[in-house]
Amino acid sequence: MIDWHDIDTVLLDMDGTLLDLAFDNFFWQVYVPQQYALQKSVSEQAALSLLADWIGRHQGTLNWYCLDFWSDELGLDIAGLKRQVADRIGFRPGAEDFLRALRASGRRVVMVTNAHPDALSLKVERTGIDQYFDALVSSHQYRAAKEEQTFWQRLNEAHPFDPLRALLVDDSLPVLGSAQRYGVNHLWSILHPDSSAPARDHTDPFPAIDRFELVLPK
């Protein structure tokens, strides 16, 4: 269980942690290849192969999360395409009750996301998720992805916190590893970030949240 008595600051990822990753996976794995194939007059399989190669080369970097970069790279209006399927955006089960409980607990709650500011704005617009946070931080503000130590250094400069008394919940194991290297003491992953895919078997070396109602703050 999460040791809430030792936690003052809660750092929460957005996609795959609080919001269902099914939206993002559908968008990048299905919708974007379809639109690329239509606009470039290639087969969907060719579009999938091209996208997989491009995305693989930038994975874990800020470019991977940057809508402007992918708009330029693919010749598509990525932000506009996201709006076309925005009805698929939604909370993971129990996430909103978890956020309400955090607010009621009086702890400082900061969103830390690699999402591009345009994607973050769209998801705030669709869900109202911003009401539960003291601050919303996109890694694009710091020009460093959460996988980089620079992100955590700049986060602590802008929003000071004690890493030993901070909790990070994130579905990305590389991000959790980066936070661990920085010294964040309480690290939890998510067992089922995408409702359209099977749950993970485990998230070693980090404990994982399956149901938010089982880890509500005290």
From TrEMBL:
**Alphabetical list of SUPFAM superfamilies matching this protein:** HAD-like
Q: Give a GO molecular function annotation for the protein.
A: phosphoglycolate phosphatase activity
Protein's GO biological process: DNA repair
UniProt keyword Hydrolase present = yes
Gene3D superfamilies in alphabetical order: HAD superfamily/HAD-like
Entry keyword set: Hydrolase
Q: Looking at the UniProt record for this protein, which Gene Ontology cellular component terms does it annotate, in alphabetical order?
A: cytosol
**PANTHER family associated with the record:** GMP_IMP NUCLEOTIDASE YRFG (PTHR43434:SF3), PHOSPHOGLYCOLATE PHOSPHATASE (PTHR43434)
From the Swiss-Prot or TrEMBL record, give the protein name. Haloacid dehalogenase-like hydrolase
Q: Tell me the lineage of the source organism.
A: Bacteria, Pseudomonadati, Pseudomonadota, Gammaproteobacteria, Oceanospirillales
